[in-house]
Give the backbone structure.
Amino acid sequence: MTFTLPPTSSNPSFNPSTSPSSDPSPTPERAPRLTVIGTGYLGATHAVSMAFLGYEVLGVDIDPRKIALLNEGTVPFFEPGLPEKLEEALASGRLRFTTDLDEAAEFGDVHFVCVGTPQKLGSEAADLRFVDSAFTELASRITRKVLLVGKSTVPIGTAERLTALVQQISPLGAELEVAWNPEFLREGFAVQDTLHPDRLVFGVSSPWAEDRLRAAFEPILAEGTPLIVTDLATAELVKSAANSFLATKISYINAMSEVCEATGADVTQLAEALGLDDRIGSKFLKPGLGFGGGCLPKDIRSFKHRAEELGIGAAVAFLGEVDAINIRRRLRTVALIRQVVGGDLTGVRVAALGAAFKPDSDDVRDAPALDVARMLYLEGAVVSVYDPEAAVNAHRVYPDLEYASTLDQALADADVTVLLTEWEEFRTADPVEMGARVRSRTVVDTRNALSPDRFRAAGWDYWALGRPHTAPVPVSNRSESVLATLDKSADLPC
Ligand code: NAD
């Protein structure tokens, strides 16, 4: 749903005593002008989506390259559907990008801060330098009553600390308010998740701040999106708690995978049986190489660190184990590949399929796939990495790995093929055709994303952690007709 706003609406005249619940449908004239500070994965998507919904938006970043690209209509990262929306939003005249914070302070009624909160070097804590800098730099330029809204994921207590800080800095003093609006978008589905989130959370200190946020999300709220209005601390905690829960569920099934490996049980069947229990559910219960990316790993570490600072470390000490199980997946995967090739990886040609931390993203931050590829390389394997979108980012992190530009190129003469990120291209690739490229038809499916039956029918030796290994049926005649029959029979239900 799109609603059109008037050309400008700066400095709207609000009645701070008006309760939002008594005025649930703000008129377009009350719609705030928005800035988005930090235009990375989260910020660029937020800026584009809000402009698409009809708001006037100014995106700000300290990286001039990113700003130049966005202004010319190029999304600096891979996100399905975002380029089209960016083009549309720029054409509407409602969206611009700048590096000029003075301009942003002048322009915005509601400022969304979306800068990064990476893990601190040498610590599990979040590095809040970027958040602190964005809030204080902005606050020092604010001369009228506006709302500063954090969307970045931060440790509990950050918003309260920032409130004191910005009120000290700003000429507005105690009149300057901070709110927190945690973001739950998933890379790969970022546009859909931003335009149609499953819930909105507003952490506010006053009815005025709630009203401003309601005005900033009016079209989304009008769709009936559930809204939780709460205090600053709870809003911060919702994000940490949600990510911790998801990480725990993934590590839980991966811990069960370890049990399966020791006992000969099959973790995929176990996960299916558990997932059919309504109380458990099948989402995030997929055994495999574990989680990575720019959020889950650093968020659970930062949550644990913050809890220890608060003297309640015991409450979330289990997150240390969740993290350890997750990291163990990478080591066990390397151990399995070593075992599969006979105990020594030296000189073994590995086709590494995937580098991104998950499909439909080019994000390689803390990517399990790249970690495994790198460990194999360090053990002497000749690793050819192919990822449909993440090769450039991966090369930046690990320039010493070999990068193939097609699946076929990666597979050429491989001794072992390792599925590391479950891109559609890999899940749907024909095992018969793949088999024709490699030296040895040995596949390790670290994501439980391939069909063992189809691969075995095409003569592959199929391996996965947490599943019993079955010796392959040798394929004596690899002519097209025989292989086509095998392929069809493999599609039959077991
Ligand atoms: P990112 O690294 O892609 O983007 C951060 C951007 O902020 C960069 O472009 C950087 O140049 C810019 N920046 C840094 N300091 C700045 C400043 N002072 N002023 C203006 N710009 C500045 O990070 P991201 O993935 O977009 O994540 C941002 C935050 O959102 C993090 O806290 C993350 O945990 C959270 N988050 C991310 C996602 C996601 O899917 N990526 C989802 C939910 C929440």
Q: What stands out?
A: The pocket of nicotinamide-adenine-dinucleotide is lined by residues 37-43, 60-63, 66, 114-117, 130, 133-134, 152-153, 183, 185, 187, 294-295 (CB under 6 Å). Residues 234-494 form a domain with the Rossmann fold fold (CATH 3.40.50.720). The first strand starts at residue 34 and ends at 37. Residues 232-263 form the longest helix (32 residues).
